[in-house]
Design brief:
Layout lengths: L14 E2 L9 E13 L6 E11 L14 E2 L15 E3 L1 H7 L4 E2 L4 E2 L3 H15 L9 E11 L16 E21 L2 E12 L12 E11 L4 E3 L5 E7 L2 H14 L2 H10 L4 E2 L1 H14 L4 H4 L9 H13 L11 E2 H11 L5 H22 L11
Antiparallel strand pairs: 1-4, 2-3, 5-8, 6-7, 8-9, 9-10, 10-11, 11-12, 11-13, 14-15
Helix pairs in contact: 2-3, 5-7, 7-8, 8-9
């Protein structure tokens, strides 16, 4: 299936202030692969066959230089990409208002949340040098509070702002590339890149070692801000010692992502529908799934959504403005998939991406089961 992508050139471009390199110069090394073709002359972007360009490393250390700031195009959001117990912060807040944890045995600094985001921006600029990007949307949770030494004996209510310290244990972010879009069933999808960092996965009481990150590339449904992520576009654990190592592994994930196949599979979901009876059967079996004996459960494809998510899907089957049932009670698998990704917004940061990928696999598997060719048929039987 050949897919045409719409180029959007409205809004401000990503502008870089003095002190940050403006141009990224590629070498002459090329290799054929299947992903994204970037035409540097007319800036058109197509999914399909392309020549991967290996780029010269870009020094991003100046991102933290005094007076250096990044300006992005603005984007109006209907809802956040994740809710749960998170709150929104800016990149400026992370850089200027939060302390950075260290490994206590050698006092070596961790790769901070802001470095993670800025490294991702650097990788994006290398892979998509002619595209604008939206302002990073950043969500954090589990705030760790502290105080400066001079505030040791001051009551909490009397602390001044400069005597308070804090950082966030968990952080998730996304960066949209609004110039690369596709429409499925009337819903505009925008190419989106992001990641998750959880300090609780690190042993900060030991010496510095490889640090763990989660990274993805996929699409965001702009109707509901739900993320659409598949297995090829997700790395559940990137282990890195430096931001250069981290960036290299991010580039590998982006290069290994088959966007054309991802979009084709999502488009195919529109061709399948669940009757009200089928939908009720899936909801009931999904509730039974977690209570199955281990031997039986091992024979069935994994479902990571819990009872709370399934209840949300059941409610939204009747109430969701964009993806509810039709007049006959039927619901397309595309709408069903978006009910799953919508319920996933209530997941905590550390399980959010895994469940998002699982929602895609589950929807794809049920679609196959409707045609009688999938081991997901247990959920429909």
């Amino acid at each position: 299936m050949e897919i045409e992508l719409t180029e959007i050139r409205k809004g401000e471009t990503l502008s870089i202030s003095p002190g940050i390199p403006k141009d990224i110069i590629s070498t002459q090394t090329h290799s054929n692969t299947s992903f994204i073709e970037s035409n540097l002359e007319n800036t058109s972007t197509n999914f399909g066959e392309y020549e991967k360009v290996f780029l010269e490393p870009v020094d991003i250390t100046n991102l933290n230089a005094p007076g250096a700031t990044l300006e992005f195009s603005n984007s109006i959001q209907k809802s956040p990409f994740i809710e749960a117990n998170t709150e929104e912060v800016s990149l400026f807040h992370l850089k200027e208002k939060c302390v950075i944890p260290v490994f206590t045995k050698d006092n070596e600094i961790t790769l901070s949340h802001q470095e993670f985001i800025e490294t991702a921006l650097s990788a994006i600029s290398k892979m998509f040098p002619n595209e604008n990007v939206d302002t990073p949307e950043i969500r954090v949770s589990h705030q760790i509070k502290g105080r400066t030494p001079d505030a040791l004996h001051i009551a909490a209510k009397d602390l001044q702002e400069h005597q308070r310290t804090s950082y966030f244990e968990r952080m998730a972010f996304i960066v949209r590339i609004p110039g690369i879009t596709e429409t499925i069933n009337g819903n505009k999808l925008s190419l989106t890149i992001g990641g998750v960092r959880s300090y609780n996965l690190e042993n900060l009481y030991n010496k510095k070692t490889y640090e763990k990150f989660k990274f993805f590339i996929g699409f965001q449904n702009m109707v509901c801000c739900n993320l659409c992520v598949n297995t090829d576009g997700f790395q559940s654990e990137i282990r890195a010692m430096s931001y250069l190592d981290l960036e290299d592994k991010m580039l590998q994930v982006i290069q290994g992502y088959n966007a054309n196949q991802h979009l084709s599979t999502m488009k195919s979901l529109v061709d399948y529908s669940l009757s009200e009876r089928d939908f009720a059967q899936i909801i009931g079996k999904a509730r039974l799934y977690n209570y199955l004996p281990k031997k039986e459960k091992a024979l069935i494809p994994e479902l990571l959504l819990n009872d709370g998510h399934i209840s949300t899907v059941a409610k939204d089957y009747y109430q969701d403005e964009s993806f509810c049932r039709n007049a006959n009670g039927d619901i397309s698998m595309w709408e069903f998939y978006n009910l799953l990704t919508g319920s996933n917004k209530t997941s905590y940061v550390d399980t959010f991406l895994e469940r998002g990928v699982n929602a895609f696999s589950f929807s794809e598997g049920v679609s196959d089961a409707l045609s009688g060719s999938s081991n997901y048929s247990w959920f429909l039987s």
